[in-house]
Amino acid sequence: MNNNLKEILTIGKYFRNKFGQKVYKVPISISGFTCPNIDGTVAHGGCTFCENDSFSPNLSENNNNNKFKFKLNPLTKDNIYLNKQLKQLQMQFYASKKVLENKFKAEKFIVYFQSFTNTYAPFDTLKALYSKALGFDDVIGLSIGTRTDCVTDEILDYLQDLGKTKEIWIEYGIQSFYDKTLEKINRGDSTANMRKWIIKTKSKGLNVCAHLIYGLPDETQEMMLETLKQTLKLNIDSIKFHPLYVVKNTILTSKFLKGKFIPISEKLYIDTVIKSIKTLPSNVSVQRVTAGIDDNSLLAPLWCKNKHNLIQKIKKTLLQEGLKY
Ligand code: SF4
Predict the structure, then answer these.
(1) Is 150 in the pocket of ligand 1 (CB under 6 A)?
(2) What is the distance between the alpha carbons of residues 265 and 155, in angstroms, rounded to a whole number?
(3) Of the residues 147, 171, 187, 247, which should be mutated to test ligand 1's pocket, given the most ligand atoms within 8 Å of the CB?
(4) Which of 221, 223, 224, 298 has the most C-beta neighbours closer than 10 Å?
């Protein structure tokens, strides 16, 4: 064992340092949430890589559950399904909590609003869901996945208030700090807007996790690393890296099948992640170094099938650089 290894600050270590024990994130998916990039508010169809029911009708929860045929947006006048959403939240949380307790003896939890855009709903609905989640046994905080065009001063002020006693994180999808790339992926947001709202979020003392995608159309390694540099300038607290992969029933599928999109190679992805991790300031934690998809919806690149294998390769390469993940 090399004693000179430098430990990378993972989010697990960050939580252990702060709370003295392991903290588990519990992913939640609430029916009725969508995204302004899907419902036509800023665009139709979503980001080109996004698997959503506008391209894949059998993903729609409508097939299984007529109760949730509606989709929320911030202007929805009367959310008549709120009680059902609250029940859904409770059921999902306690089911996962039980599994984590049995498997890992987990004691502390963060409720992670993961699917779609979790601030894209009437403010009252958001307040009801967030406060309900914070009232669950052993929950110490929230992590809320969203877009920078779906937060408001009102939402951030409310979260700032919650942050006085709870651990509140906002996870922003950045993906790229190049407007031309954001256009290519039909992101429906701009780098100027991302900067504005991340700076605002940080000014309110909230924790920010940034999500970056490596391998976006026509991006070179230099561009990916520049995106990281621009992201770090915003004093974010944590980061997630994700390779761009093609799943069926997305806009990217047809581009890929026509040869108009070439996925990033495993070698380039690993090299870019390693270079990225090496430049992180010591206070920025790493939440994810890759993602994988182990089912037949993955079209390419096939090296994304085995996430575990990829993580091992990244860990091994980091070790060679004197870094322990
Ligand atoms: S922002 Fe997220 S949910 Fe919305 S279209 Fe893009 S990937 Fe899909």
Answers:
(1) no
(2) 39
(3) 147
(4) 224
CATH class entry, domain 6-324: alpha beta
pLDDT in tens, 16-63: 999 999 999 999 999 999 999 999 999 888 999 998 765 544 444 444
pLDDT in tens, 230-263: 999 999 999 999 999 999 989 999 999 999 999 9
Question: Residue 116 C-alpha to ligand 1 middle, in angstroms?
Answer: 6
Local structure of 265: helix, strand or coil: coil
Taking the CA of residue 164 as centre, how many other CA atoms within 13 Å lie in the half-sphere pointing to its CB?
Answer: 4
Report the alpha-carbon distance of residue 213 to residue 246 in Å, rounded: 13
- Tell me how far apart the alpha carbons of residues 170 and 322 are, in angstroms, rounded to a whole number: 31
Q: What length is written for the chain?
A: 325
pTM: 0.94
Which residue among 51, 116, 118 has the greatest number of ligand 1 atoms within 8 angstroms of its CB, and so is best to mutate? 116
Query: Contact, 34 vs 71, CB < 8 A?
Result: yes
User: By three-state DSSP, how is residue 1 classified?
Assistant: coil
| pLDDT confidence band for 279 (50 / 70 / 90) | very high
The confidence score (pLDDT) of residue 54 equals 56
Q: Which atom of ligand 1 is nearest to 46's Cα?
A: 5
